[in-house]
Specification:
This protein has one helix at residues 2-30; strands spanning 38-40, 46-48, 54-64, 67-76, 82-94, 97-109, 114-121, 129-140. By secondary structure, it is of the alpha+beta class. The strands form two sheets. The protein has a four-stranded antiparallel β-sheet, with no helix packed on it. The radius of gyration is 26 Å and the shape is elongated.
């Protein structure tokens, strides 16, 4: 009887092990939850902003299925405020290679206020490190400036 029990126990244990392996494998394969956000220490990132007095507060990436979201927060330190259309380049590393992400946006904030520039990047990537953020003014922005007449 003990021999019959061993003959039954060994296949039963093997079946349980196989089921656990399959269940975990399916769970890992099917689990497409967002990756942990990447916060990069701003003291390790060079900010180049020759036209505006900005302080870099944070650089963050969040990987999601199909895209990576970038968000950069700045503090305006200009006496008259930060009002401009800007082009921004983020120099970063992924897979050991240097890459550049180009963004653009409009800044409109008073001195001491926080500004955000962000963008979605496809396909999603894993960012290892951010080396430099470069902000260049493309054109000054005035919210009360007259709008150009559209060409018809």
């Amino acid at each position: 009887m003990a021999r019959n029990l061993r003959l039954f126990a060994i296949p039963a244990v093997l079946v349980v092990v196989v089921l656990i392996v399959l269940w975990r494998g399916c769970r890992w394969d099917g689990d497409r939850s967002p990756a942990t956000p990447g916060d990069f220490a701003v003291d390790g990132i060079t900010l180049t902003s020759p036209d505006l007095d900005l302080a870099l507060l944070s650089v963050r990436t969040t990987a999601s299925p199909g895209y990576t979201e970038w968000a950069c927060l700045f503090e305006c330190r200009e006496r008259g405020g930060c009002r401009a259309d800007v082009r921004m380049r983020i120099l970063y590393r992924t897979g050991g290679r240097k890459n550049t992400l180009n963004l653009s946006g409009r800044l409109d904030a008073g001195r001491g206020e926080t500004l955000r520039i962000g963008r979605v990047q496809r396909p999603p990537i894993e960012v290892e490190r951010v080396d430099e953020v470069i902000v260049e003014v493309v054109a000054p922005y005035s919210p009360d400036a007259p709008r150009p007449t559209p060409i018809q």
